[in-house]
Amino acid sequence: MALPFLGMFHSQTFQQKAICVTLWIMAAKWEMEDRLSSESARQLFLRALRFHPECPKLYQEYFRMELMHAEKQRKEKKEFEQAKMDLGQFNYSEEVLNGEMARIVYRNATQKIKGSGFLLSLLSIAKLFDFTTDLQNEILENLQTEYTNDPLVWDYMARRELEMEALPVLEHVSKQSKALDMARKEERCWTVFEEAVTSLPTEDMWKCYITCCLERYKRKTNSEELRQKRLERILSVYSRAHELQLLPSSLYKQWLQLLMELDLRQKAEEIAAAATSRFSQLVEMWEVRLQLLLKVNSDGVARCFQEAFKMVNAKVSTYPFQLTACHSGFYGLNGVRVLTARVKPKRSISLHENRPLSLEFFKKMIQIEKEQESSKMFSIREYYERALREFGATEPDLWLDYIKEELTHPQGKPENCGSIHWRAMKALQGEQVDTFISKYTLLQTGHL
């Protein structure tokens, strides 16, 4: 199959090269699957690699093609042997049957392309074929020799323990035996991770360890003992990484959520405070801490606000605004939104404490949110809900404004209006009910 046009893009842009590589792969796949010509497919891959000698995708698909060809040959040979046919008329190469062509592709590929991720991708392809044990071992040896300080390799080796067969395949294996078997596999996995964080004490390595622990903890199990072991493991690993100051900032939120789920509120507050101390320049970390304090109705919210503003103003030059606030109700449970980059530059806001909070305070916050370039309805709802907790019994207009917001905001949900109306009728008293009914009727008829 002549495809000279496929070489036209070799000096073009990255996007054009990607398109061209895809075309080469499609052409080779067509030769292999539709025309049943592995040799033509092989020649196409070789030609493609002359134009794109360092393209991982080409090598991956070429590697896969050679393994598929070997598998096809092995199945054919087995069928002919079972039929007791004379194999002399067929040309079955032992090298092809054993995957040697794929091994050649692998070795050539690793001369051109470096990195553990690429080797792991080839290993994952090889694992799909049951005759590649020797090839898999070669890839594993290369990984462990050349990438001993790569977290991805340690992560793979640890997780590999979870896939090892331990119990014989039986029809009836008790749930208790299955849980015990899984516990043993996980212990072997943790042993590898423990060696990993000792040999490679980095944030990335601890992140791999924690991610795996968290995945196991979230897996369903009928064994309370196994679940408890998983919980103890994830809490221990989080704490140790934190104490070593090797817990990445991105993982604190997950840890705090877990502590809150376990009702360990005091511990969560302590960890949140330590996190903002270590990552004082990260606005997102202050948001996480403030969200937590607001959820637990802590008395330290106002003080935390002041600390956050001080750190933001002093250290984060990308937020060219000044903001002062002294009340825990300022932002709601969805985070300190005005601290984020979504605030328009050069806006200067000064809101002072007013106990109890005034209705105008909440209206101002709603207006600020609506002025954002990407206004979020879930934040607007939070402000309305907090305002209604304070003034819902006496302010019919507040209920009406909430309803209008659901009807007009791009992210609003008109189906929520019935529930808001029902709540308003329960909360309002006396003349306020009549006022609400009158104005709601005007709203329905388009006169308000």
- Give the proportion of residues in helices: 55-70%
- The structural class is mainly alpha
Give the integer mean of the pLDDT values: 82
Unreliable residue runs? 7-11, 314-356
- What is the number of E strands? 2
Please state the oligomeric state of the protein chains shown. Answer: single chain
What is the helix tally? 20
Domain U3 small nucleolar RNA-associated protein 6 homolog C-terminal: 187-322, 350-428
InterPro entries: HAT, TPR-like_helical_dom_sf, Utp6, UTP6_C
Family: Belongs to the UTP6 family.
Organism: Phrynosoma platyrhinos (Desert horned lizard)
Write structural notes for this entry:
With 448 residues, this protein is mainly alpha-helical. The chain contains 20 helices and 2 strands. It has helices spanning 14-33, 38-51, 56-82, 94-97, 100-112, 116-126, 133-146, 151-163, 175-199, 203-218, 224-243, 252-261, 265-278, 283-295, 301-315, 359-370, 377-391, 396-408, 417-427, 431-444, and strands at 323-324, 349-350. A two-stranded parallel ribbon has the order 1-2. Mean pLDDT is 82; it is low at 7-11 and 314-356. Residues 187-322, 350-428 form the U3 small nucleolar RNA-associated protein 6 homolog C-terminal domain.
Q: In a nutshell, what does this entry contain?
A:
The chain has helices spanning 14-33, 38-51, 56-82, 94-97, 100-112, 116-126, 133-146, 151-163, 175-199, 203-218, 224-243, 252-261, 265-278, 283-295, 301-315, 359-370, 377-391, 396-408, 417-427, 431-444, and strands spanning 323-324, 349-350.
